[in-house]
Amino acid sequence: MTSYIHGYVPEEQERLLEQAGLLGPLIYPRIDFDGCKNILEIGSGVGAQTQVLLSLFPEIEITCVDAEPRQIEKAKNNLQSYESRLSFHVQDARNLDLANKFDGAFLCWVLEHIPNSQLVLEKLNEHLEPGAKVWITEVFNSSFYFQPPLEGLSNYYDKYNNFHRSLKGDPDVGAKLGNMLSQAGFKEIELFKGGFHLSQHDSESLKKITTYWKGLMKSGAAAMLEVGWITKEEVDAMEKDIETIASDENAIFSYQFVQANARI
Ligand SMILES: C[S@@+](CC[C@H](N)C(=O)[O-])C[C@H]1O[C@@H](n2cnc3c(N)ncnc32)[C@H](O)[C@@H]1O
Question: Quick one: angle between helices 10-27 and 69-78, nearest 10?
Answer without folding.
Answer: 70
